[in-house]
Structure formats: structure tokens, C-alpha cells
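Re: duplicated header lines in exported C-alpha cells

Our pipeline writes sequence and C-alpha cells for each protein into one text file. With two proteins the header for the second block appears twice in some exports. Here is an export where it did not happen, for reference. First protein block:
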Amino acid sequence: MSGLQINLGPVKEPLGFIKVLEWIFAIFAFATCGGYSGKTSLILNCYNGTNASLQANFAYPFRLHQSSFDIPSSKQCHSIWNSTYYLVGDFASPAQFFVTFAVFVFLYCMAALVLYVGYLHLYRGTGKLPMIDFVITVVVSFLWLVSTSAWAKALTDIKTSTGHSITELQPCVSQTNRCQFNDIRSLGSLNVSVVIGFLNLILWAGNAWFVYKETNLHNPPAAAPPTPGNPPPHSGM
């Protein structure tokens, strides 16, 4: 039969259990990166000893060049900070690649689990589905490496652009010690997203072996028995 046949056995096996873990870690990957919003701030030393705290808000997808600092409210600072100044850098491409890929992995894991639990008889009854699953698993493993590495590099640059380098803006370098770096909201969830990305790589690379065992490459189909009406010829003396 080709209809739905619920069988929770695969979830108890490495094939399905690891897929559940991959589904969960994919959620953590796009949630920790795509849901981030933060801010960085500096203290501007104005005339007559007046100080102004200025901050710039930034969030996913980290187009920092569109994140501007506040305009100081003190009139003593207007002659120094007399324009709109932005953070430096555009890191949308690696961030969106990482998040979008994690979402697609999340959806694929759901589809694979439905196949394992409801249509295992079809999955193991043909050699095509396991082979397709194996190829996708290998490709996903490679893309986790690429996307996480690109995002890790982008996160390093984000830390630089939102850290002490903000004191290098034009109003800050016109005179010595005019600006002081104040504070930045924790980037902990972004660090976690990188760790989870590499954990996903390990999970998918390890799962490739268990998917491979389901293919005909590991278990070739048994040879057909000889037809009774055509016995094999006897060798001559």
C-alpha cells in the first residue's frame, strides 16, 4: 500500500532522532540571528564641560550604514555634532543567507520527518528516495559550513563596526578625547547563532552516514534467483 502508515520507530533510530535534533537546531539558528536587535552608544564631550550620550540602534539584517546616531539635545554640542552620522558596513548578505538557509533546513526536516514516520514503507521500498535524501544531506552539510563561516566573519566585522571604532567618526577625531565609547548591547545571541551553525554542520555530516546506510550504495539489491526453466550450463570436462 502507498497510503499513510504511522510508524514512530524511525524517530527512535538515529535516522529519525538526528533529524529531530536538526529540526530543533535549525529553529535556534534563525531565531538567534534573525531576531536580534541591539544598540551602541558613545559619550560626546561638548563645550563648557557638557556631555551628551548618543546611541545608534541596529538589528537584523545588519545594514549598519542605515543606522544613524541620535542628534544631541544640548545646544552646546550642536556645533560639534551638526549632522547625521551613521555606522559603517552592510552585512545583510551573509546574515540573510544564514537565516534563509536555516529556514529552508527547518522546512526540509519537517518534510523528511513526515516521510520517515508516515511513509517509511515507500522510503525503504525504493532506492530513489534514500539516494535523494543522501545527496540533499551532503549538500546541506556543505552549505552549513559555507553559511556559518560567512556569518562568523560578518559577525566579527559587526563587532568592530559597533565597538570602539565608532569613536573614529568625523566629530570625534576633530579634537583629542572628544568622544568616548560608552556601551553596546550584548551580542551573545549572535555568538550563539554561530555556535549553533557549526553544531548543525556536525549533525548533518554525522547524519549523512545513517542516510547512506539506507541507500543502494550501502545495501545493493539482492541478485535475482536463476529462472527454474533455464538452469546454469554445466562446465565440460
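Second protein block, exported in the same file:
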Amino acid sequence: MLNRDQFEKFCFSLPKVTHVVQWGNASVFKIGGKIFAIYSHWDDEDRDTISFKCSNESFAILPTQEGIFPAKYLARAKWVQLTDEAGWDEETCKAYISQAYEIICSKLTKKARAELGV
């Protein structure tokens, strides 16, 4: 799994993202005002987690794997929460974060996408 610095560096590399720190020091990344990925300490065991929006298919499969859970407060919107126990490498993390970014971009209005240039 990516550490916080790696996560932030990658998210900042995506076009037109914004970043806020909220909810008890969670690093929240958005496109067009909509969240696509979060780095935080949201789990009950006080460990780092990455939460992200995923496709319907990924949401059906990922939580069946070790170290991946439906994201607290966001599962109804098809978000998962990743912990180190998942054993994901950097490339896999980045691929899913990129997919989350694309999913959220696709849900923006045409006008918003045009204004952002995405």
C-alpha cells in the first residue's frame, strides 16, 4: 500500500485535483468538488487506510479480499477501504486511485468537465 507521501504525490499528479485536510487529519482529494480518494486513520485499529470510489464490479469483488472493507460512511456509494493487510503494491494502488478519479470525472456535468478541461 502507498504511504501518505506516496499517495499525496500521486493524487497531486492527476489533472485539476484539489486537496483538503479534514475529518481528523484525513487527506482528501477531489475533482470538480467531488471526492475520489482519502488517506486516513479511519479504522478502529488506528492504522493507515486508503479509501476510494470503485466500479460496481470492483465493489462486489474487493471486499471479499483480505485487508479490504466497505468504506465506513461511504460504502453505499461503492467505496472501499484498503489496509496494509491487502498487500497491494504501488502499481495496483495507483491503478485503482486512477480508476476512482476517472469514475468521479465521468459523473461530473459536461459543463464542469469542460471548465476543468478533463
